[in-house]
């Protein structure tokens, strides 16, 4: 039979298990996670869930939502000024706003993580040169940088995705670069180098586990910024063009109807706010759980 010490060592939870336990104990984080999963399912299956076409007139103009006395059960969120079903436009628009934001954040995180790690583990002129370039680029707000790129390339769905992707990469590089640079200078890394450990071993076993909090924070921030930037560019008319049902574009197209048909403005705004709130709840819960798991 195994000794008590071996049995106790076998039952000690790993860092990931401790982090998951801490995450599950956070009720707000779990609420955000379930909402995020629901939002992902809606985004993936939006075209099958939408009861009507998002671009065709299917009802009367400016029909109120179904809970209003003048509304109809066939149009749960009512219709817009062209008679298009708002529920269908919100569902399909989730792919253009939330879905694209996830893709942009994931793509920018991969590039930013690779460059940030390489720069953080290097030193001398290369590291100093990259640091000065990042300082210059980061002095420009991401939305302004995206507007500059879109103004040069022209409005359009593909162009705004490329513009926001370019705007997010420098911030991810800076965060990862700073975290890795600080971690490399610590005593345990220096001791491991003297013991013969190579860069790959140090990165996989020591550095990455200790910068997961930074990666998580930047990832959730990137998704939130991408959602807001896509919506802002759509609101300004620089993003997805009519009749595409992007949430920001829906908001911009209906701003003149705020007193006549407030649901046409309120519902896209709530969709944007809800998606950003859910991402932030999950991101904060993950950061707290990882910190507690490391401790």
Automatic annotation (TrEMBL):
Q: Where are the transmembrane segments?
A: 28-50, 98-121, 133-154, 160-180, 222-240, 260-282
Name assigned to this protein: Antimicrobial peptide ABC transporter permease SapC
| PANTHER family per UniProt | OLIGOPEPTIDE TRANSPORT SYSTEM PERMEASE PROTEIN APPC, PUTRESCINE EXPORT SYSTEM PERMEASE PROTEIN SAPC
Record-stated family: Belongs to the binding-protein-dependent transport system permease family. OppBC subfamily.
Location, primary (coarse class): membrane
Q: Which UniProt keywords apply?
A: Cell inner membrane, Cell membrane, Membrane, Transmembrane, Transmembrane helix, Transport
Enumerate the subcellular locations listed in this protein's record, separating them with semicolons. Cell inner membrane; Cell membrane
Please give, as recorded in its UniProt entry, the membrane topology of this protein. Answer: Multi-pass membrane protein
Family matches, as Gene3D superfamilies? MetI-like
Q: Which GO terms describe its biological process?
A: transmembrane transport
Q: Which domain of life is it from?
A: Bacteria
Q: Which InterPro entries match?
A: BP-dependent_transpt_permease, MetI-like, MetI-like_sf, OppC_N
What range(s) does the ABC transmembrane type-1 domain occupy?
A: 98-283
